Structures
1.
Amino acid sequence: MSLQEQIKSTIRDINDYPKAGIVFKDITPVLATPKLVKAIASELRAQFENEKIDAIAATEARGFIFGSILALELGCAFIPIRKKGKLPYATRSQEYQLEYGTASVEIHTDAVKPGARVLIHDDLLATGGTAGAAADLIKSFDGVVAGFSFIINLSFLPGEENLMQRYGVKPHYLVKY
Ligand SMILES: O=P(O)(O)OC[C@H]1O[C@H](OP(=O)(O)OP(=O)(O)O)[C@H](O)[C@@H]1O
Ligand SMILES: Nc1ncnc2[nH]cnc12
């Protein structure tokens, strides 16, 4: 079985979570399979090891899991982007659109050095709102968005087109639905 097939056969679909009509892609069975986690880590490393990347910026909460594994694999810094009110030092916020209403994420003001090449990682790309807000934060400190990395792309939603249009880079992902 290919890595893609292994990932897809291990992800669990939860119908109507967190609300009616949503099919939630649950990665916890993947996390419970150490061999698969290791294979994903190797694949992520292979995707980016020849690129110049100074830091991985990942979004709370699920983005932290493979985001920190990837930072370790590449030997680069890890930058946490968190939901409002969770980071202890001085922060900058960015609002973004949810399906209904808005949300806000934050970064520490000393996290991104001007010119730093930052790869944005999250577990899943849906509308691209979360990853776009992370990219806007990186750019607001004159960091360079080196790319986007996801485990899952929900390709029936416009996340990939939105990120390509706004930042001119094609997102990487391991599996799509
Ligand atoms: O492309 P988007 O439409 O922005 O959706 C993708 C985001 O949604 C999920 O996070 P969620 O907000 O559910 O938070 P969690 O990781 O803390 O569960 C997922 O982990 C991404 O961060
Ligand atoms: N269908 C989905 N499954 C898991 N996380 C998500 N974030 C946004 N949509 C999602």
Note: The pocket of PRP (ligand 1) is lined by residues 59-63, 122-130, 159 (CB under 6 Å).
2.
Amino acid sequence: MIHAASALPPALACRGLSHGYGQRAVIRALDLEVAAGEIVCLLGPSGCGKSTTLRLAAGLEDPWSGTIALGGRPVSGQGRSVPPEERRIGFLFQDFALFPHLTVLGNVAFGLRALPRPARRQRAGACLAMVGMADYAEAYPHTLSGGQQQRVALARALAPEPLLMLLDEPFSGLDSRLRRRIREETARVLRARDVAALMVTHDPEEALAMADRIALMEDGRIVQCAAPPLLYHQPATPFAARFLGDVTEITARTGADGRIETPLGSVPAPAGLDAGTAALVMVRPEAVLLHPAETAAAARGRVTAHRALGRLTELRIAIDGMAEPVLVHQDGDGSWAIGDGVALGLRSKGVFVFAQS
Ligand SMILES: Nc1ncnc2c1ncn2[C@@H]1O[C@H](COP(=O)(O)OP(=O)(O)OP(=O)(O)O)[C@@H](O)[C@H]1O
């Protein structure tokens, strides 16, 4: 649940953050906000500065410049440097390392030393129940599976009731099926507890599945911050379009009629792309319509590759005038075989046009 903007200050507000290592800047004038109760995924390629942003929010590093506030309380910048243990943040990292010499209950109770013993056990027990691990309270970590250990780590991080959870690639050590289940459970628990979270991932599918908003990072900056469907369907830059999913790329020029002719058909040029301007047209695989070869359509091609993706079939279609085959996703097992002739058209949704840089 995301609280009304006016009700509570943001769980995290970073303003104009810059940071680096040695002389090298890796975070550049970064603005980022996580509302109370919101799950934001920090998504981007390796080395773009995601973990550094998390470390700054955690107080493990002091920024070169800029400010950080947690729940409306300034914690970094302007001479402040509140240490990590006083920030009311919870951590969940890939190498979540439970304490091997403590029981599951002992692990969860560890961060609750300020509470009297009975209250500590009660809160720890309630947190274990929340992640479905109440029956394992007296077990030791080495007897648990990876997924169970991850659940205990989540309970341990949530027990002290943090204002903000910081998660750094927390599921990357799990196999794909388990990973999906634990990810859904984690999102459910965070939402049920109304805990805000900032989660680092380089996996677009993970961010699309978990986030209320995705902050897409490139080279130390947030290039777009939006709800998952918006980021996928209205990327602000070619980088964002490529990072969120497959695209076929076509370069062409805007015509005098304000349209761009491509081998797949004509698309309207957006404002600012005047006649003669070089354009980059990017087409998502699901934006291509396939028809029987004899249909009157904008383009004709031939199927060169065919791959079952479970719910979808991925096809590559060679078209005259295009260097690379067009990537197409069809629902179901597809009615096309390699070598088939097809007619093609474009939907408007899933086609993005940018000025060619
Ligand atoms: N302690 C450090 N000392 C020097 N350089 C560092 C240090 N930590 C990170 N870097 C560099 O800063 C840049 C950003 O690193 P960061 O770990 O924040 O990126 P990331 O987006 O989380 O990448 P990844 O997904 O690979 O972890 C990288 O080029 C990295 O090599």
Note: The first strand starts at residue 12 and ends at 21.
3.
Amino acid sequence: MEKNSKIYVAGHRGLVGSALVLKLKESGYTNLIFRTHAELDLTNTEAVAGFFAKEKPDYVFLAAAKVGGIVANNTYRADFIYANLMIQNNVVHQSYLNKVKKLMFLGSTCIYPKSCPQPMDESYLLTDVLEYTNEPYAIAKIAGIKLCESYNLQYGTNYISVMPTNLYGPNDNFDLEKSHVLPALIRKIHLGKALEQNDWATIDKDLANLPIEGVSSNDSIVDKTAILNKYGISKNDSGEVTVEIWGSGKPMREFLWSEDMADACVFLMENRDFVDTYSSDSKEIRNTHINIGTGKDISIHDLANTIKEKIGFNGSFYFNANKPDGTLKKLTSVKKLNALGWKHKIELEEGILNIYNWYLSKNS
Ligand SMILES: NC(=O)C1=CN([C@@H]2O[C@H](COP(=O)(O)OP(=O)(O)OC[C@H]3O[C@@H](n4cnc5c(N)ncnc54)[C@H](OP(=O)(O)O)[C@@H]3O)[C@@H](O)[C@H]2O)C=CC1
Ligand SMILES: C[C@H]1O[C@H](OP(=O)(O)OP(=O)(O)OC[C@H]2O[C@@H](n3cnc4c(=O)[nH]c(N)nc43)[C@H](O)[C@@H]2O)[C@@H](O)[C@@H](O)C1=O
């Protein structure tokens, strides 16, 4: 990528997209283009065709997608598969028609089998059944890998696919029903600490900036307490606050800081082409994607206690077995990525402090 190349970052305001924009600017790329979801709905084929014909970007980072946590994926199954298939089909096909030099497709490590050998090597793709809760989303992501591979093989394009582990960082989604676990626990434990301190000013600020459905900050304390209860944040008669954790707390998860993710994406876009992803004597070319992660995981139970300690919450947790655990372990093999010379920098404890300070800067 040349410093004045026209680079389109799809999803530029999201968790990954916003980190990518920062990283590209820091790296001296001066010709970035973007459109908000409202300006350009990437599920709209005609609109995407018009955008690409007009802008003709040289490079594309496809970081736009319909994204959510385990309950959102399991609830809005049709939306997750439809929107993500439409977005990637439109962007990849229009990139081909408009001669984009290189495109990066962002998938997810949920593409690997539910009971995949650990750590999960890229070659384990399609070797067994997927985790049910996010199967529609995972199938869309697998289709994205195959779309890029197939365009490359048939039309000679240079589209590379990366499979990130769970990510967190600034501009994450903190909605308590639709988000991923780490932002959800940051917010719930933050609210739990405010509740144990009767700090209604903090609760009001949180609700004002990130409204919890059904409550406004001028509702009575009784109403707000009822809403907090609904989201699993409650105080008993002796004043002890409990925060609900979904599932058993036993699942293991890996977490990569979003700015490390952006760094890996720019590194790969600058250093890895499709032809580098398979050996020249391969008869059947597949699994050309590359994992991005830390190679380290933690149980949800220990994650919650780490966040509790960093935030300074003194209450307790209730593990709600009525909520799904999902895959028990999905540790990425980062062997390939590390061999290319890239390794993450931000470890989880530092990242949790970073994201909590960022959250406070937006909500206090
Ligand atoms: N977060 C994570 O833990 C992980 C994410 N990924 C992948 O990384 C990529 C980025 O995810 P992340 O940054 O977390 O997601 P976010 O939801 O934070 O950002 C996605 C962006 O895409 C935009 N978008 C969604 N639908 C459309 C649409 N139809 N048209 C135009 N824009 C749209 C959103 O805009 P708006 O909000 O306005 O709708 C948002 O800006 C995705 O491909 C995701 O699958 C992979 C593994 C883990
Ligand atoms: C990145 C990856 O993310 C998703 O997969 P996931 O990692 O299973 O998603 P998750 O982060 O929502 O949950 C991780 C674990 O955490 C537990 N958990 C506890 N308490 C809360 C909680 O309050 N909220 C959430 N969301 N989870 C909780 C939860 O029960 C589960 O055991 C895919 O949908 C897909 O988007 C994908 O690719």
Note: The chain has a mean pLDDT of 96.
